[in-house]
Every structure is written in structure tokens, then in C-alpha cells.
Amino acid sequence: MDFSFTPEQDAFKEKVTGFAQAELNEGDLKQRDADCVLSRDLWKKIADFGILGLPFDKNYGGSEQDIITTVLAMEALGYGCRDNGLLFSMNGQMWTVQMPIAQFGTDAQKDKYLRGLIKGELIGAHGITEAEAGSDVMALSTTATRDGDDYVLNGAKVFCTNGPVADVFVIFATVDKSAGSLGLTGFVVERDTPGLIVSENRKKMGLRTSPMAWLTLEDCRVPVSARIGKEGQGGRIFNNSMEWERASILANLVGAMEYQVEECIRHANKRTQFRKPIGKFQSVSNRIVDMKLRHETSRLLLYKVAWLKKTKGSAAMEAALAKLYLSEAWVASCQNSVVIHGGYGYMADHEVERDFRDAVGSLLYSGTSDIQRTIAARALGL
Amino acid sequence: MDAQTVEQDDVHKTIYDYLVEHSGVNVSGGIDPEENLLDSGILDSLGIAEITEFVEKTFDIAIDEDEITSQNYRTVTAFTAFCREKIAASAK
């Protein structure tokens, strides 16, 4: 067994860390968080550095890195960049917009959308979840009715990350309700398409720099050429996206946890009470050791998923277990961090408080903890 | 009953028994061969992946992802026929 990476992978991770620390913490994050604004400047920097194209075809501006290198880069971003919402939006686009187009789209769709998305000239959003189709997302009710050379989409979507600022949407609808999940079909829908109505930014507890919209589709007519893959392939497209997204978003969290442990150690060594650093009290040091243990175990689970995806192609149960464990570890780590920082950690002008708010979303996005347990239980034969 | 018929009945019985045991919904009254498995919840998205893996192992066949369609998976009858075709093709 070998836990090491190649010298090239280590060097690349270090380079991404340096980039994130130097370039992605510019501007007033507190103000962006308060205003619920995505930084287009930082988005462009991420694109210019090549992050948005990491695992994608060189012909469309990508660099064709493998999943392990991609995960290491995401971990480095989580460590170096304090804007969790920015990274959340980035992952949303890469795995649920770019990846479906890259893997199942036509050359014309890749030319028209993938290239611009990777360059940072377009922003993409993903619409699948509905008011009555959350964890049971395959039961969605948005319909796509074939009409000559078009499809007519009708329905409503919720929790559409990047929606308020997106230029292009990947939207899932059913072409045949009686076919269950095998009726799901994906479509690329441009923002100015008549019948696509995008709500204003919906306010959230955390991840506020990642805008979110509700979508309404009212006789929204798209050409057959907007379909991604074949009719009925939507479930497969979505599941593939989720495996990539779970691995990559989790990598951000692992990096963020590492930064948080280091920050708590700095604070515990600096902050003095009863004439000694608070880190000398076992109640504090034990808490930080628990944070470190969660970080290390999280990293192992993450790397295993990446390795399985690379070598076996699929890792449904392992990705579910990793998503479940890492998101809950990230919330626990943030809670520990608040307690270690005392009253200051509770104050709104401190990033510890923002991290905690951001972390709660991880229990819900990319599949709730409950649905991850359901997936794992089914895989175990229960 | 010739050997081929016995084999075909085994395919049907194996699939039927699997579905009754692993159905996502209560099927204590049995499953009609023409019942829509996809619409009724007997085969949800996880169930489709699971039964695909099951028949691949049980019948030593390989199912391409492009073959996982509503036409092939809609009913016990359709899925049995699809598996029989795959078994016959792999035996050649």
C-alpha cells in the first residue's frame, strides 16, 4: 500500500494552494457574504488558472487531469480560499453542468457551451430538484413533451445553485412519467429562452456568496438539439454528476478542515487564560485532537473514493459513505472551532461563525445525510 | 419440457423471485407479468442498478448502459425477454 502521490501531483497541489491563498482571498468577503454576492472577479481568476477545466478535454480548453489530481486541487482550494460559497458555486458548475455536457453532449453543445464555461465567460446552473422531488429526485414532475423538432418544458425547480447569475442551465425533465427514472432526460436551456423564468436570489443561512434561484418553466420550447444524450439517459447523467460532485465538494471540505485545525492550534497557543495558553488545558487540546482525527479520517475516505473512481469507474456506496461522514465531520469541526474561539467565534464579523453557517448546508446538498445512509444501506443488502 | 424451456422458465423465476424479495414497495400479492415496474415503484433508480448487477452476475451476461431503457425494464415480461436475448447472445 502506498499513500504517496506523484511529485507532479504534490507540486501541483502546492501551486494551487499558493494561488488560492494569494488570489482568492481578495476583496471584502464579509461584505459579499452580507450582500449575498458571487465575486465575478474571483470566478474569472479560477477560470484563468485552469481550475474549471481540470478534468476536461483539451480541445475545449481543459487540461485532462485525472480525478486524483483534480481532487488534490480541490483540497488545496478548500485550504487556501476562505470563500466557501465561491467554491460551492464552482463545483456546482463543473460537475452538474460541464460534466453532463462533456460526457453526454454533442460536439456542437461542447463547442457552444463547454468552452465558454471552462473559460469563465459563461456561468452554468443545474435544475433537477423540485418542491416534491428532493431526495426522491427521480420522481420529478417537470415534463418535456416532444413537438416536431422541439421539446416543450413545463414545471418548476427549486434550489438552483448559480441560477440568478447563470447564462445556461442544465435542466432535467421526464419525457415519459410511466417510465419512472428511465424517463428522465437532460436539456441545455439558455437563459433568454422564452418560458424560462428565473427568480431573484433566494437568501440562505450560509454559502451566501453562492447565489440560488427557483426556476419556472412555462411552455419553454427548446430544439431537439438541446437534449443531452438520449431520451431516458437523465438518471445516468445525474448519478455520474453526483459521484464527481460528491468527491470534489468533499475535497474542499477536507482542505477547509485542515486550515481550521491549524487556525485553532494558532489560537489555542496564543490565547491565554489563567496565565497559560488555552491549548495547555486538556479540554481544549483534546477537542483539537478530535478535529485532527476527523480531518485525517475524512481525507482517507475521500482519497479512496477518488482512487475507486479512477480504477473502477464507479464508487456509489463509498461516495455515499464519504459524503455522509465528511459533511458531518465538517459541521462538528466548525462547532468545535466556535467553542475554541469562545465568544469571539460566535460573532458575525469572525470567519469562524461564517464557516459554521456554511457547513450546515453540507448536510443537505449533493444528497442529504439521510439519503447517503439509504444508499449505503441498500448497497449493504438492507 | 425441453432443456431450453426449463432454462427460460428459470430466467423468469429468478427475476420474479428477485423482484418480490427486493421490491421498493409491498408486493405481497405478487407481481403481474405486465405490471409497470418503473411506474409502480417496484424498480426505482437504485433498484434498476441493483437488478442489473444481479442479472449480470447470475446469468453471466454484460448489460451495456445504453441497454438500460424503459422498453427493456418496464415489465417482468419485457425484462425476462431482454435477459433471455442477452443469455442467448453470450452463449454464441
SSE layout:
The complex is a heterodimer of chains A (382) and B (92).
Chain A: H1 7-23, H2 29-35, H3 40-49, H4 67-80, H5 84-104, H6 107-119, E1 124-127, E2 143-147, E3 150-161, E4 168-174, E5 184-190, E6 196-198, E7 212-223, E8 227-228, H7 234-270, E9 272-273, E10 276-277, H8 282-311, H9 316-340, H10 342-346, H11 351-360, H12 369-379
Parallel strand pairs in A: 1-4
Antiparallel strand pairs in A: 2-3, 3-7, 4-5, 5-8, 6-7, 9-10
Helix pairs in contact in A: 1-4, 4-7, 5-6, 5-7, 7-8, 7-9, 8-9, 9-11, 9-12
Chain B: H1 3-22, H2 37-40, H3 45-59, H4 70-73, H5 76-91
Task: Quickly list its features.
heterodimer, A: 382 residues, alpha+beta, 10 strands, 52% helix, B: 92 residues, mainly alpha, Non-ribosomal Peptide Synthetase Peptidyl Carrier Protein, Chain A, 64% helix
**Helical segment count of chain B:** 5
Radius of gyration of chain B: 13 Å
> What is the CATH topology descriptor of chain B?
Non-ribosomal Peptide Synthetase Peptidyl Carrier Protein, Chain A
How many DSSP E strands of chain A?
A: 10
Main β-sheet of chain B: number of strands, strand sense, barrel status? none
Q: Output mean pLDDT of chain A.
A: 94
**Which structural class matches the secondary elements of chain A?**
alpha+beta
Principal-axis shape of chain A? globular
The helix content of chain A, as a percent range, equals 40-55%
Biggest chain contact? A-B, 17 and 19 residues
Strand content of chain A: 5-15%
Low-confidence stretches of chain B are: none
CA-based gyration radius of chain A = 21 Å
CATH architecture of chain B: Orthogonal Bundle
What kind of sheet is the major sheet of chain A?
A: 4 strands, mixed
In the CATH hierarchy, what is the superfamily of chain B?
ACP-like
| H-E string of chain B | HHHHH
Strand/helix succession of chain A: HHHHHHEEEEEEEEHEEHHHHH
General shape of chain B:
globular
